[in-house]
Amino acid sequence: MPGLDNPLRVLTSYRLRRTMSSAMSSLNPVFAEFGLRRTTYATLAVVVENPGQRQGKVAEALAIERPNFVQIVGELEKSGLISRQTAADDKRAYALHATAHGEQLYSKASRAVRERDLELIRGLTAAQIEALHSALAVIVANSKCREVQDDC
Amino acid sequence: MPGLDNPLRVLTSYRLRRTMSSAMSSLNPVFAEFGLRRTTYATLAVVVENPGQRQGKVAEALAIERPNFVQIVGELEKSGLISRQTAADDKRAYALHATAHGEQLYSKASRAVRERDLELIRGLTAAQIEALHSALAVIVANSKCREVQDDC
DNA sequence: TATTGTTATACTCTATAACTATA
DNA sequence: TATAGTTATAGAGTATAACAATA
User: What residues of chain B lie within 8 A of the CB of A18, using their CB?
Assistant: First the structure.
């Protein structure tokens, strides 16, 4: 019985959540095809395209708490997709690099992921997609400005 | 170091997820003010505005799996916000009703939630908000059409 | 037989405190 | 003393199988 949730549909945040949930249901099987999850895929993407970055910086870029990031990196390392190398200038830190296998897997996976992602926005014009991304950026900025107590 | 996640920013699904995460970080404290979580707030909203609906129908409307919905309803009942009444025509089923307390709490909570939700979209015009909601609806439809094998 | 609500279970993501080894 | 990575732990959301009572 759709319509029961009408009282919630005035909330953009509710629509965002429902949309995100649908989108992830569609994308998760694609990640799984390559033995990945959303978080490991995202990490692999950042490491492949930004070689040598420190573990903490990658976690920060993905807005993943460092403690939670440890197992993600560990999983990718155990799968032979990335390697941890002690940073030359700081023995506490790890620099992350993708292995050849990791780069090959990412190359295939990213094509499949992008394809599925495009299916999700099929029917929208380039201008509508642009407008969507802009609106999402506004929401992110408005969310942050409460935490940071910026000039909002 | 923002910018490390550039390879992911081409994905609308990634932007959706990051936006949803920010939005929920902003909204969760509002739910918490009223002793609620996102899921219990959503359930209370549907029950208040659709009295007498069956538990399973409410779960379906919110896209929550029935097993997971049991504890949500149980929590609201324990808090005295809703009541379960055996359906007159089906002894297996429960009809859900909000208590007076539940209605009062929802009245206050929904105002606060809507206010915070509006803050999130501050700066967007009515047309832009409309366009955002439309774009989200397209994504939901595109997600479903793969499952349902509709004419997509 | 099928359905409603339930229990049990497991997996993912998220969040925080406290530790270690370096700086 | 501060930071990078780690461990431990807990909470929340999500997903599936199997059961009892009822249809």
Answer: 63, 136, 140
Q: Does residue A70 belong to the interface with chain B, where contact is any CB pair within 8 Å?
A: no
Question: Under a CB-based contact definition with an 8 Å cutoff, are residues A46 and B8 in contact?
Answer: yes
Whether nucleic acid strand C comes within 7 Å of the CB of A92, the answer is yes
Q: How far is the CA of A115 from the C1' of C13 (A)?
A: 25
**Do residues B3 and A107 lie in contact, with contact meaning Cβ atoms separated by under 8 Å?**
no
Neighbour count for residue B128 (Cβ, 10 Å)? 16
Residues 97-126, chain B, CB closer than 7 Å to nucleic strand C: none
pTM for the full predicted model: 0.96
Determine which of B26, B43, B46 to mutate to test the interface with A (most A C-beta atoms within 10 Å): B26
**How far is CA A108 from each of CA A34, A35, A104, B17, rounded to the nearest angstrom?**
9, 12, 7, 22
- Separation of alpha carbons A68 and A55, rounded Å: 12
The answer to whether A40 and A72 have CB atoms below 8 angstroms apart is: yes
Q: Kindly state the DSSP code that residue A10 receives in the 8-state scheme.
A: T
Pairing outcome for strands B90-98 and A82-87: unpaired
**A57, A110, A133 ranked by CB distance to B15: nearest:** A133
Res B1 pLDDT > 60? no
Name residue A74's amino acid: G
Contact B97, B82 (CB under 8 A): yes
Spacing of A91 CA from D4 C1' in Å: 9
Give tens-digit pLDDT for A62-97: 999 999 999 999 999 999 999 999 999 999 999 999
Q: How confident is the model at residue B140 (pLDDT cuts 50, 70, 90)?
A: very high
